[in-house]
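Quick one:
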Amino acid sequence: MSKTVGYFEGTDPALLNKLVAHGIGTMPVSNGFDSHGKQIGYLTKNDGIDLVVGYFYKVVPPKEIGLTMKKIVLSCALNKIPVLLITDEAIHKAAAKLMGRMPKGVKMVPAAKISDEVFAALKIKSKTLPAKKAAKKPARKATKAKGKKKR
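Output:
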């Protein structure tokens, strides 16, 4: 059974490439006000998304629209779809304070650890992808031409 990761706009393309190379599908999701993909607030298990990943700021709504961070990720929590929010370790405490008590399954992760956390959440072991091997050049054979002298 194939897994699918929903991702907010701005998610590292290297991470998305790694997922695809491991046979994991990707699908853009929206926070409801950026129109990047399917709105996260309407996700259900029928959408086939096993995990959502993206930067923390994507779940911080503008005050003018009247949403809360909890409302943005609530559908994921209700459908048991984990959400990994990328944030710098330096601002982790400030972001956690701003976020307050979030629903179960929502986790902040430093950017340096996001790949490992994504694979752990999907319960898939990340394989080191083999590097392309350079083609070996055939060894040149020394040939002696008969009857000719070396100069």
